[in-house]
Amino acid sequence: MLPITDFLPRIVSLLANANNLILQAEPGAGKSTALPLSLLDAKWLKGKKILMLEPRRVAAKSIAHYLARQLGEKVGQRVGYQIKNDRKISKDTVLEIVTEGILTRRLQSDPEISDIGLIIFDEFHERSIHADLSLLLSLEIQQTIRDDLKLLVMSATIDTDLISWYMGSAEVIECPGRAYPVSVEYIKRGQEPLSRQVTRVLSTLLAAGNTSSAGKSDGDILVFLPGQADIKRCMSESSALLGSDPHLVLLPLYGGLPLLKQEQALMPDPGGNRRIVFTTNIAETSLTIEGVTCVIDSGLEKALTYDPVSGMTRLETAYISKASATQRKGRAGRTQAGSCIRLWDEQKQRSLRDYQSEEILLADLTGFVLELFIWGYSEYQDINWLTPPPMPHFLSAKATLASLGLIDSQGKVTALGDKAAGIGVTPRLAAMLLKAEGGIEKGVACELAALLSDRDIFYSGKGVDIAERLLALQDYKVNRNAALKAHPINRASIEQLLMSVSSLKSSVQLDKSSSEYTLTQLHNSIGKLLLYAYPDRLAKRRSDNSGRYQLANGRGVFLFDDDPLFGSQWLVVVDCDAIKKEGRIYSAAAITLESVLDCLDESIVETAHYEYDSAKQKIIGRSITEYGALEIKRSSLSDIPSDKFQECLLDVLKSSELSILNWTARCHDWLARAEWLGRYADTFPKITKALLLETSDEWLLPYISGVKSISALKKVSLFELLLGILSWEEQKFLEREAPLVYQTPSNKTVTIIYDSDQGPTVSVPLQEMFGEVVSPKIAGGKVPIRFELLSPARRPIQTTSDLANFWRTSYFEVAKEMRGRYPKHRWPEQPLEEKPGKSLKRFS
Predict the structure, then answer these.
(1) 443 against 26, higher pLDDT
(2) What is the rounded CA–CA span in Å between residue 480 and residue 476?
(3) Dihedral sign of CA atoms 109, 110, 116, 122 in order
(4) CA dist 11 to 24, 149, 153, 773, Å?
């Protein structure tokens, strides 16, 4: 007897008196297999049906078959199911097991769901985005138009307080599971690859001949790994090591595997052989794998994380939660005592998070938000969130929907958006299907949508080109055996693809015969169609002729140089990661510039840009055609409007800090004097280069408004404009207190250098200063002129701002030294009595 059996009467009774109930049942309790059947005859259903939501297709189908057998019937009678591309339901069906997307469409198309009395949300602890959406819609239906609708949330490990609050203080029933003891062994991860460690542990187990604490040596082994690639590596290495044993069967199990192969992994081997099933987290909860007595757990999983800035989703390998570790361990104790080997240590176990993160916090919300908008929501704050997603994710989804034409500028769903939601693919792919024109384009679009919705039909490492895959599909349709030899095709995947194509053609009401096309038509359509779906992922090759590209959304991506698409100027990127600064392209197709211009005609912006070309010393104009962050093309403009020239000229003046003007030596000298005097004279304006730039609209722009070229600007007398800044009195004050030149005692004129650090300086031969008793002062007598006294070789021999002290003291040391060097020059003992002038004695 299953543990749930004792709880069934209470559950039936509670649902008779309340609309909402939460069942927290541990693995093995029988919640998915015994409970639904016990509710079929409940009086409170009043002849209405039960809908049971399962997160995975293989689980929905497996549970339906099990429940039908319990009733002694075939699937499709009282118990039926509906999953993607597969439906077994009749007029007699009273329990429908459906996957998440199916339930959402049912609620959207018929909100009253008058034939449904109870909706069961199974495995709700997985907190998929679709389950959150379906529960939100179901609660609103219950609270508005179906107050008799009953909702039952079932889960293994979940925050029941939160769910109970969300469902209006729903009662919680806790049911124990049926589990045999499972021993746990921890093996710390070393530096070796995961596949090698798994193979080594398997070899040790099989050599010991004992996989459980009960001593059973023929139980099946379940190996949890992060992803498909890890499964393939581990199977390959294990097969090489263990392949000699004819009684061992190695099987994969992951979400992208064809459904028949998934079902094969769930059932015991027909020949009674021992199985090793390599799986992802798909086998944690909803799937029961018969005969497992040992679990090897890597402790890792692949998690999708959405980056709203780039619009990309990255796949990261991360440690699982404690709850997931418990679920995985429990797989070994469903039928007898078992064992679990964890490939991490106990310290890592203590650091694991308690529960896995809700998908709504990590996922691309585009499809989710479209469904909410169709339901009638438009604002984030109005939505009855169970777990509110990050606002940037919500806004990014809204922007994507708008770019696809599925919502308008007010956030209202367009006619295209209404149709898109019912097709059964992502909003991007739905937009592509609906925008395709004519039977040929629609046929290619259906194949593209199916190809991009399912797993790759090529084996890994075969390039990123989507066109190559569609070409392989055409070859396969013509001659399957020849195509399998010519292309690296995964046969199971391509057969699944053909089923999906057929379903999509029905969804868009496309007649099969009208969608046949030639290879030329195929090539001409692919890029254009993908651009309908991924307008933000148009990519242009960067100018360095590498495999680096820029996307229309501004992000950088790259191709490896050995990829067949390397060198393509334009791409539409379908899949790439967002882990690094530049994401790696995983899936893309080439597109011509002609198709880009044709497809994006209304979104392309043509603008005129004006800028200063420093090499040509002129302001130039260009017409630039842009789409998002991409420049499509550019051309030169021969005529520049005067207002645009003035705007650009002003920008150039500011960016060059006025250096573009004709700064003569006279202008530089004037500014140095004025700036220096402003520091010492309170009545004189504080003039600096920065101030000139700041006030250029007052002293400069009015006088260059008629300038039509940089060459004309260079002819403007900057010195006259600078003088105009000062009044007549201020000009005279500048000439007097910060003179341009100094007149020596010998009446020689020498330029004064206004050095910002050293002060006003005059460089002059020492002999020219004979008779100058004291240093003259300027700036109203505040600052003495600094003299740099030169030797006959014009080299400084003394610097002083105090001539009187110099003549009394250090002159005599200088003269003594110089007489030895320059004996033909004057170095008198009484310099103040000597006539100023030439240095040589013969000129004195």
Answers:
(1) 443
(2) 4
(3) positive
(4) 12, 16, 12, 116
SS3 letters across 645-686: HHHHHHHHHHHCCCCCCCCCHHHHHHHHHHHHHHHHCCCCCC
Do 33 and 88 lie in one domain? The reply is yes
Task: At 250, list the tokens.
Answer: 């190695």
Secondary structure (H, E, C), 483-515: HHHHCCECHHHHHHHHHHHHHHHHHCCCCHHHH
Q: Which residues pair with 576 in a beta bridge?
A: 585
Question: In angstroms, what CA-CA distances link 565 with 108, 167, 348, 531, 561?
Answer: 41, 52, 43, 17, 9
Phi-psi region of 424 (alpha: psi -120 to 50; beta: other; left: phi over 0): left
Distance CA 336, CA 178 (A): 10
Answer whether 465's CB lies under 8 Å from 564's CB. Answer: yes
| Per-residue pLDDT band at 516 (split at 50, 70, 90) | low
Tokens describing residue 147:
């107050």
The Cα–Cα gap between 117 and 432 comes to: 37
- Determine the Cα–Cα distance for residues 385 and 770; give it in Å rounded to an integer: 94
Same domain, residue pair 147 and 261: no
* Listed residues 737, 764, 795: the one ending a domain: 737
- Rounded to 5°, angle at Cα 388 from 384 and 394: 100
Q: What is the pTM of this model?
A: 0.76
Percent of the chain that is helix, strand, coil (3-state, to 5):
40, 20, 35
103/7 same-domain check:
yes
Same domain, 60 and 191: no
Shared domain for 121 and 232, answered yes or no, is: no
Q: Could you tell me if residue 317 is inside a domain? A: yes
- Look at the block and give the residue holding tokens 């651009």: 531
Q: Is the pLDDT of residue 820 over 70?
A: yes
Answer yes or no: do 760 and 810 share one domain: yes
278 and 346 assigned to the same domain? yes
